Amino acid sequence: MAELMESAIVALDAEGQILLWNRGAERLLGFSSEQVLGKLCSSVIRCRKCDVRDSVAREGKIDDVSVELDHVKGGTVRVRRSARAFFDAQGRFAGAIEILRPETEPALKGIDIQAPNKAEVFHGLITRDSALKQAFQIIRNVAETDATVLIRGESGTGKELVAQALHEESHRRSRPFLAINCAALSASLLESELFGHVRGAFTGAIKDHQGLFKRVEGGTLFLDEIAELPLELQAKLLRVLQERTFIPVGGDHPITVDVRIVAATHRSLREEVKAGRFREDLMYRLRVVPIFLPPLRARRQDIGLLLQHFIDRHNLHGPRRIQSIEPEAMRVLLDHHWPGNVRELQNVVEYAFAVGRSEILRLEDLPPEFREEPILPMAAALPAAESESDQIRRALASAHGHIDRAAQMLGMSRATFWRKRKKYGL
């Protein structure tokens, strides 16, 4: 059985247009994902004896059939093809997952497959998404300065990895990198942990304590969940940013520090300022350089890439090795909304390795929520007789036309939402 990294994984919509084209597909047939996404599969996967969409729609599934495909450079490649079709409630073709594996002895005629590797690995972050690649370049550029950085992104998108990357790319790399979650401690404990205290400052303070600002001297301090910083400490942090000095709890003279501040939040600081929970002057001091991390659902071409990465890593240890993924399991993984982002995907792979034993990752290896019918979050607020098209129309209106937000309201992936919009002409 071919290694997972060698398999081409292709997802199609009801019209036969390509929704997913992984790195294995790039390597196998020579097209980059940028060239094929949104195009008709029949114009890309040119099978000598079959029409990919029509055959899988007609047969429902295809199991390990040998086919010969055209390569972008003009030659041909022989592969083993498996596919699963999906149908809507009326029995109409709704899309498919194709897995193409090169045969053990690939029959390549007149070509040398050297598809470009579009993935970028940057300090533990892996992506093929252009927005995240742009963020990587911003990190490299700003790391050459001491500018304060604010990282904005949902939980699980890799905010601490970005902070560490900023540190490792900077001239401070030989000095400490320390991190603290501002939501994890009470205001009094957080103040002591950040700024330290002197002996006798409060009951139990039997000796002087150096805070993070002093311990990270010359290095980088990462303040995660900065929106949760209590108002009484925001003024003290502002002073550090403005004057590079602070006073320990119970102290009476300022201490000068040389520290780079990197902060992160999943909230909008502007909204927190409007709500009176965050100082406006501190917000501007923190977001000198804002860096936005897109959620995993907005970079769906990375799902297969990250899946392969985590599987490869687990394959190095333990009794189980996963060599391939069954189409049904791949379908639900691609269609999942990933509210926990990359961290959730990593946990799903760990779960699969713990509960399964086959060389194939199957649907039953995934956590229970992947095998349940999706519950639409808006359902309770919608009239019982409202049709799916009306629900989609209402979601679009509520989200002011924002596709990702409307899809999230209905518990759908962007691809599913887009397909249903097209189906109903919305």
Automatic annotation (TrEMBL):
UniProt cross-references to CDD domains, sorted A to Z: AAA, PAS
Top-level taxonomic group: Bacteria
Domain Sigma-54 factor interaction, residue spans: 125-354
UniProt KW Transferase keyword: no
Keyword ATP-binding: yes
Pfam families for the chain: AAA_lid_14, HTH_8, PAS, Sigma54_activat
Keyword terms of this UniProt record: ATP-binding, Nucleotide-binding, Transcription, Transcription regulation
GO biological process: regulation of DNA-templated transcription
GO function terms (MF aspect): ATP binding; sequence-specific DNA binding
Domain PAS: 1-39
SMART domains, per database record: AAA (SM00382)
Signal peptide: none
Coiled-coil ranges (or none): none
Protein name, UniProt field: Fis family transcriptional regulator
The species this protein was found in: Methylocaldum marinum
Lineage: Bacteria, Pseudomonadati, Pseudomonadota, Gammaproteobacteria, Methylococcales
